Amino acid sequence: MAFYIIFIKLLFMKDIFDKCKFADLELNSRIIRTGLWQSQDIEEVYEKYENIAKSGVGLMITELISIYPKDKFSEYSFKINNPHFMIEAKRLAEICHEYNVPILGQLEFIKFNRGIDLDIGINDLTIEDIRKIQSDIILACQKLKMVGFDGVQLALGNNFYLSKFINPYFNQRNDDYGGNTFNRMRIVLELIKVLKDNLGFHISCRVNANDGRKGGIDNDESIEMCKLLEKVGADSIQVTKPLSPLYFTKKVSDEAELLGFVERLMNEVEIPVILGGGFNEMDHMNELLNDSSVEFLSMYRPFVAEDGFLEKWKKEGSGVSRCKMCNNCYRTKTSTCYHF
Ligand code: SF4
User: What is the pLDDT of residues 209-224, one digit of tens each?
Assistant: First the structure.
């Protein structure tokens, strides 16, 4: 009997390398690779994507794709309006698909430009500006769809523009796009509705568990926002915090806070939820999967330190990333490692 119980338990244990469904997508594992800065030439990027895709990753989320050429982070990002972007993005999608790995483009902007004015504040946006932002994002999504991407991730978290737009700390508008939660979310809800009705590809939203600022978004409001996102058709949610999570081991900080939020959110929505953060140790990730209801984990810096490390982890049944957690790549906005 005891043997039978152990056998049943083992049968239902989760592993980071489980093949699984993620909304409409089939994944080779529970690991979501998320990118940030882009500083390499495109041939190196192709090689990196191939190494990551064939190593056993579940889902690729690109580095930031900037939609405004004069935006603050454009220099360190893919640019949707670059004449080569479509050709390069098509190749990235083909590389991922060769290994049955779906790919989402991460769209963001930090400052909205109107003509020579390069930093229009949230409360100064006209309705025409709001329509312009929505149509620029729709156009970017059309381009990604056209080159074979499986979907998009909208940056509604960290400190990107839309995360500020939906935040009462920044948004003091007194029209239909300010005030209560629904009104502040309206710009995004309208956008997702149009995207789902017309493009039908995967829409993931990256959201902050809370804002951390007095008068900003708290956990309760963030849950309400995620429910609204699901209602209009968002397919998945990735949870983060305003500054990129810095925990890397079970000994360090942010994990419990984000984990508690993700478990709570999973009780409130049906769509997949990704726990975002800096995991770097396979045993710890498997423990977390089996001690909680969490299904999907994202990783960023370990893929900067070594693109194909998952292959070793899979073969050896455990492993620790060689990333030293120095955060230099994050601070200096590069997609390569200072140490390796
Ligand atoms: S620069 Fe530091 S944080 Fe970035 S990948 Fe290398 S060791 Fe990790």
Answer: 988 888 999 999 999 9
